[in-house]
Design goal:
- The protein has helices at 3-10, 14-20, 24-51, 61-75, 84-92, 96-117, 127-146, 155-169.
- It is an all-alpha fold and 173 residues long.
- It has one domain.
- The longest helix is centred in the N-terminal third of the chain and has 28 residues, at 24-51.
Length: 173
């Protein structure tokens, strides 16, 4: 990714781009922040829709979990106009404090999600469980991106990560 290509794709001159983003790193940081905002917005929207459903308690718990997890997975993998190389660049230029903040926000939203839904077939995770779950998922996606793994964005990887969440959040029988 070059700033010239970004400017051309956005329909701006390179000078205009540099007015708003003095370096490629600042541009990537802004895109990363926007990506986090989109994930949080999608989670909030999903939660709001579920809270309005009178039948939420009778819905398939694994399907509910899968939907929430897919929102997170798609937010940190290619899609929504961001290419694999763009996301890889975001990971390469990541600021650890900013990444930790983004993951904490996602973790908090998911915890709220499970608490408010209070589905009989999903445990409300405690802080340690949410920490381990979100860091496991985001860490896996980060590694897959940086390693250019063919598993990234594959249904197989998505299913394994949902299985991980299910193993942690489904009540023990």
């Amino acid at each position: 990714m070059t700033t010239n290509k970004v400017a051309a794709a956005a329909g701006f001159s390179i000078g205009t781009l540099y007015q708003y983003f003095p370096s490629k790193e600042v541009l990537v940081q802004a895109m990363s922040h926007r990506g986090t905002e989109l994930v949080l917005h999608s989670l909030d929207l999903h939660l709001s829709e579920l809270e309005l459903r009178a039948d939420v308690q009778s819905l398939d718990a694994r399907v509910l979990l899968g939907k929430a997890m897919r929102i997170v997975l798609r937010g940190f993998t290619p899609g929504k106009g961001l290419s694999q190389s763009m996301i890889r660049l975001c990971w390469k230029l990541e600021q650890p404090d900013e990444t930790a903040s983004a993951v904490r926000q996602v973790s908090d939203r998911l915890a709220i999600h499970f608490d408010r839904i209070n589905h009989p077939c999903l445990k409300v995770p405690n802080a340690a469980q949410m920490f381990v779950l979100t860091r496991s998922i985001i860490g896996t996606l980060r590694s897959a991106s940086l390693e250019k793994s063919p598993l990234l964005s594959s249904p197989a990887l998505e299913e394994v990560l949902i299985d991980l969440a299910w193993a942690m959040l489904a009540p023990k029988t």
